[in-house]
Amino acid sequence: MDPTNRKLKILFIHNKYLQSAGGEDATLEAETKLLKSRGHEIRTLIFDNAVMKGGVIGKFKAGISSVYNINSAKILRKTIKEFKPDILHIHNFFFTASPSVIIEANRQKTPVILTLHNFRLICANALLLRNNKVCELCVSHDFPWYGVKYKCYHDSALQSAMIGGMAAIHKWAGTWKNKVDAFIAPADFIRQKLAHSSLNVAIEKIKIKRHFINDPGASQPQTRESYYLFIGRLSAEKGAEVLLEAWKDMNEDKLVIAGDGPEQQKLHQKYGHLKNVEFVGKKPREEVLLLMKGCRALIFPSICYEGLPLTIIEAFSTGAPVIGSDMGAMKEMIRHGENGLLFTPGDPASLKKSVTQFNQYLANNDYSPYAHARNSYLQLYHPEIGYDAVIQIYNEAINKAAGGIQHE
Questions:
Q1: Residue of 181, 187, 213, 191 whose CA lies nearest to 387
Q2: Is there a contact between 321 and 339 (Cβ–Cβ < 8 Å)?
Q3: What single DSSP character describes residue 154?
Q4: What domains can you pick out in the chain, each with its CATH number?
Q5: What is d(CA 30, CA 111) in angstroms, rounded to the nearest whole number?
Q6: What angle, 0 to 180 degrees and rounded to 10, lies between the N-to-C axes of helices 100-107 and 70-83?
Q7: Cα separation, 175 vs 258, whole angstroms
Q8: CA 316-321-325 angle, 5° bins
Q9: What value does the mean pLDDT take over residues 300-316?
């Protein structure tokens, strides 16, 4: 029997953040649904940070538990004995699950796969961003001394030290290097950044598996409307203000802003008077996809590295080109002059120039960016591609744990 066709018992672990669901939650949901549809037996173990009490004492206890949570290890031990999974796939352990789930799985001789959605293990705030600028001061240090100095996590030196301490202790203990069978990075940029960091994990152990979404279908370029589109959280790192600064004197092009967040009120007050800008608030996914199918192009002005933004994947799936920041995962996803355009991060003038260039494509009846966008989705981010990639990673880890014996 071909081992790639073997039906597996897969245990997922995910840790909910206190804020609303985001890209990690969507990725987990997509993976579990896809694997179930292929006949694999799935169980998901969810941990929730809401169980941690607030206040100084609560935060201190949470910090200690983030290093090793005895209760989480017990829950996993019981689940493994009942379910007997072939493999454990962790999407997020921060902070209630804690690295204790990795150590416990290792004790139970269950191979461990860990998806790295961000830079948490080498950066206190997980974004490699400080004061709205890329910061890599801590990348090569076991402990994020600068993260503590600059209070990078929740603007607290104590909490930054606790988060940094969690990652550092398990670097020193060899947890990441010796007890995780394979890491998954959604982009080669992330893979390279982590492989050349204090994480000290061989690059061969970090596998690339891009996120995927179900095919929503694409619209034809000629049926699209004249607006440009921003979808995302209205927060500093997402670059919405950079976009709105570029739009101040672009009277002929309409911009639709869909999303909410901490900078929502500020942006409304500062740019709400612009007649060619429409703030439509946060929209459900179905409406987001309709907006993408109708837009001229998506604009993704993030000023941080990002992971592998699902928003860009969704745009490509609908055939919408993307005008995005020339950095991090965006630079990897957007092929300049093909499926979109790149501009200098944080530079409104460069963004404006890219929009003007895109308008020129349409003026010349050049609709090739739409076809390239759709092809990018089909070739890289379709469920079939994602399934093949994750099953290969699972089987390699299982076979290695079994001493290289092929499963029949």
A1: 213
A2: yes
A3: T
A4: 3-213+382-401 (3.40.50.2000), 221-380 (3.40.50.2000)
A5: 22
A6: 40
A7: 41
A8: 100
A9: 96
Q: Which residues contact 93 (CB under 8 A, 6 or more apart)?
A: 13, 15, 47, 99, 101, 102, 114
pLDDT digits (tens, 9 = 90+) for 40-86: 999 999 998 876 656 655 666 666 788 999 999 999 999 999 999 99
Q: For 301-347, where are the alpha helices, taking DSSP H only?
A: 310-317, 328-333
What secondary structure does DSSP assign to 207-221, as a single string?
Answer: EE------------G
End-to-end CA distance of the chain: 5
Confidence check: pLDDT of 2 > 90:
no
pLDDT, tens digit, 9 for 90 and up, residues 92-126: 999 899 999 999 999 999 999 999 999 999 999 99
Cα–Cα distance measured from residue 103 to residue 180, given in angstroms and rounded to the nearest whole number: 9
| List of long-range contacts for 135-143, beta carbons under 8 Å, 24+ apart | 138/164, 139/193, 139/196, 139/197, 139/198, 140/197, 140/198, 141/198, 142/168, 142/171, 142/172, 142/198, 143/168
Query: Does the global pTM surpass 0.70?
Result: yes
CB of 115 closer than 8 Å to CB of 89? yes
Which tokens belong to 219? Answer: 């619209």
The full 3-state SS of 65-101, as one line of letters, equals HHHCCHHHHHHHHHHHHHHCCCEEEECCCCCCCCCHH
Mind listing the pLDDT tens digit for each residue in 231-268?
A: 999 999 999 999 999 999 898 899 999 999 999 999 99
Sheet of 182-185, strand order: 41-48, 9-16, 87-90, 112-115, 182-185, 206-208
- Record the tokens describing residue 89, joined without a space: 């796939």
What was the pLDDT predicted at 58? 61
Please state, in angstroms and rounded to a whole number, the distance separating the CA atoms of residues 83 and 264: 45
3-state secondary structure of 283: coil
Task: Report the pLDDT value the prediction gives residue 75, as an integer from 0 to 100.
Answer: 98
Q: Map tokens 């985001």 to a residue.
A: 22
